[in-house]
Design a protein that fits this description.
Blueprint: H1 5-8, H2 17-31, E1 37-38, E2 47-48, H3 50-58, E3 68-73, H4 81-91, E4 94-95, E5 100-106, E6 111-116, H5 118-123, H6 128-138, E7 142-147, E8 150-155, H7 161-172, E9 175-177, E10 182-189, E11 195-201, H8 204-207, E12 213-220, H9 223-230, H10 232-249, H11 256-267, H12 287-293, H13 296-306, H14 315-321, H15 338-348
Antiparallel strand pairs: 1-2, 3-11, 3-12, 4-9, 5-6, 6-8, 7-8, 10-11
Helix pairs in contact: 2-11, 3-10, 9-10, 10-11, 12-13, 12-14
Amino acid sequence: MAKSKGASMKITVGEPVGVVAAQSFGEPSTQMVLRSFHSAGMSSVVTTTGLPRIIEIIDARKRLSFPVMNIRLEKGSEKNYEKAKDVKRRVEGVKLGSLMSSFEENLKAGTMAVHLDREQLQANSLTIKNITDRIKAKFDGLETSSEGDTLTVKHKGKRDIRSVRTAFVRVRNLTVSGIEGIGKAVIQQDDNGNFYIVTAGSNLAGVMEVPGVNKNRIYSNDIFEVQDVYGIEAARNLIAHELSKTISDEGFTVSFKHIALIADAMTYSGKIRSAGRHGITGDKTSIFARAAYEETVKHFVNASVFGERDMLKGVAENILIGKQVNVGTGRIKLAIKKEDLKKIKSASD
């Protein structure tokens, strides 16, 4: 008789689930090709895959190499290409630097002349007034004026070269259209003929405010941004999904329960923690377990200074001192009656 799904998910008492999960996840990771980038099907929107992506997730890095978003349109508009173009225009971030043909700085006088490309302005449905309004809204100490296709920016504050130069660099990097944090956006089409938008860069909160976007079908690969917008449970699910997808894309298979255990361990405290010395390992109560990972001398010195005690309840610390590990068969304790022990001893004599 076949086991039920619930019965098959049960584990034996004392099963070293952490060790098994680490082995199951670590073995295929070592076989992965050290491949950083992959752009097939993304039309120039690049994302990190393979081992670099796994390291990025496990280390809980707040700044991703290539954050990416998938944005779906509202129901009834999925097959409307013009609607997709409108959403793309609203989402795609356009910086002032991409709209100019050249610029001239006079740091002593505190002025910068920006020569705008009229074709680029028309392609992005922008005018010089849109740009000047944006600069005025973002910067207090700057004055703007325009003549033809030339925009002049003047620094009104203290004119030391450092502050003037910094202000002008910030102006050229200013997002004058679209959403801050999002770069290139590309319209894609799925197998059902529905249009969706893939972006280089991520800003969940900003995209949710764009008209025409399906707020329930926005996907970002930035786990910290997902935590901020949707909460820790959503971040946990994203960690598990991204790890599972990355491994399967490389042609390997790992049981999802092992991946889910890693995601749970990284998020059970209510915030995302890395697996290294600044996260899960660094928070272990065992001195030996912390010292066995990294910074051995530091942990032993701190433990001796503060009089810490290691109760030797975990796996790593018991292996380290050669003591039987309290998992699996190591949990079994044998007892024998005194009279039986006497019989055994007399028989051996």
